[in-house]
Amino acid sequence: MSRNLDQSRSLQKRAEKLIPGGVNSPVRAFGSVGGDPPFLVRGQGAHVWDADGNRYIDYVGSWGPLILGHAAPEVIEAIVQAARNGTSFGASTPTEADLAALVIDAFPAIEKVRFVSSGTEATMSAIRLARAATGRKIIVKFEGCYHGHSDALLVKAGSGVATLGIPGSAGVPEEFVAFTLALPYNDVPAVVAAFDKFKGQLACVIVEPVVGNMGCVLPTPGYLAALRLITAREGTLLIFDEVMTGFRVAFGGASELYNIKPDLTTLGKIIGGGLPVGAYGGPAKLMDMVAPVGPVYQAGTLSGNPLAMAAGIATLCQLKANRQGFYKQLDEMAGNLVAGVTLAAKEAGIAMTANRVGSMFTFFFTDRQVTDWQSASTCDTVKFGRFHGALLDAGVWLPPSQFEAAFLSAAHTQGDIEDTIAAAREALALL
Ligand code: KE4
To answer: Which residue has its alpha carbon closest to ligand 1 atom 23?
Structure first.
């Protein structure tokens, strides 16, 4: 059943004249799945509506922040209340420490935290701090992991295991990635080789402890512990980029789930409840190296914005109120969804594997287990695109890329799950 998209198409034509690609973030242009991106005008709970009135069950959730669903009453009320007192002061406000206390309570590895306005700012600042704290230059990231768009992190994977970075974007001079190493994920020998080759020179290892940005990919058993061990031994800081996994895979993120204490943690998405917030945090002795206390400069006009703090506080308080039950329920529902869709694929004779941690998951169009970028890149992205489009026609909105994670919220019902599985069954039959 194809949808009327007249309004969205004319909105896209107007937007393209004013904004590159008509979008303020590339993935929204549907480049990797094709088709016309619907323009959304409303969200409520698990559902969103586009400008033509089509309703979708939403599994993007603004790319992770909306774990409570769209327009959660408590979050909206908190924002409205805060807005009545003004939108921004550029001065300290009580709610910044309120949100900081909630974050610190959930992450034992964090004693102090600094709020910024995006995940990109959080990781960029954490890397600057790690370089200052260690006096070292080289940073390690992993192929298929994304940590925002700061220059040093836009690298193509090096050809060899320990080949320094090649720019991954136009406009990034090779000098800017000359101190960035991109290694294969879930590959401990590659990390050992890098530490051997660049002994005493590695400032930090930054990792998505559960990857969302090559699709959902889990750390193999012992992998995170191996990273923790070798970085501690070599005086290199371990940065857990929990922008996506923080308060998602557990209240205390992957740190809680895998019982690992990194040196620095970056956060975002859920802690802003849908408004712009990022954060980086760690031991007080490290964080006190950040201006104005220490020599590491970092600043932001809207950092700690009162509306964003209010939305984050309201969100985290909801999660904290019933943290055991909340995450158990999400895990069960997401498990039912993934089991239903993968069974439908099996019955349709379509090669599909799925990875899931709690309420974040990805359906991969490949017959292989996806454990790193190499295996992720064996996916049939054309088939994923056709699946994505057929689901949209059936009123189900998956992230518009094979290499993204999908998210279930507390607002999704059993009915939504059943409708989604039925829609997937029909879509798979069309493939
Ligand atoms: P932002 O600068 O987009 O707030 O955060 C960057 C970032 C950092 N770390 C991780 C683990 C992330 O997933 C992200 C951003 N995630 C993407 C979704 N894969 C944002 C969506 C987009 O780029 O539009």
So the answer is: 25
The verdict on pTM exceeding 0.85 is yes
269 is catalytic: yes
pLDDT tens, N- to C-terminus, the chain (431 residues):
679 999 999 999 999 999 999 999 999 999 999 999 999 999 999 999 999 999 999 999 999 999 999 999 999 999 999 999 999 999 999 999 999 999 999 999 999 999 999 999 999 999 999 999 999 999 999 999 999 999 999 998 655 555 677 889 999 999 999 999 999 999 999 999 999 999 999 999 999 999 999 999 999 999 999 999 999 999 999 999 999 999 999 999 999 999 999 999 999 999 999 999 999 999 999 999 999 999 999 999 999 999 999 999 999 999 999 898 999 999 999 999 999 999 999 999 999 999 999 999 999 999 999 999 999 999 999 999 999 999 999 999 999 999 999 999 999 999 999 999 999 999 999 99
What structural domains does the chain harbor?
6-63+324-430 (3.90.1150.10), 73-321 (3.40.640.10)
Q: State whether the beta carbon of 265 lies less than 6 angstroms from ligand 1.
A: no
Q: Which residues pair with 50 in a beta bridge?
A: 40
164 burial via Cβ count (<10 Å: 0-12, 13-18, 19+)? middle
367 within 8 A of 356, measured Cβ to Cβ: no
b/e burial code for range 372-409 (CB count within 10 A of at least 16 → b):
bbbbbeebbbebbbbbbbbbbbbbbbbbbbbbbbbbbb
Our answer on whether the CB atom of 362 is closer than 6 Å to any ligand 1 atom is no
380: Cβ below 6 Å to ligand 1? no
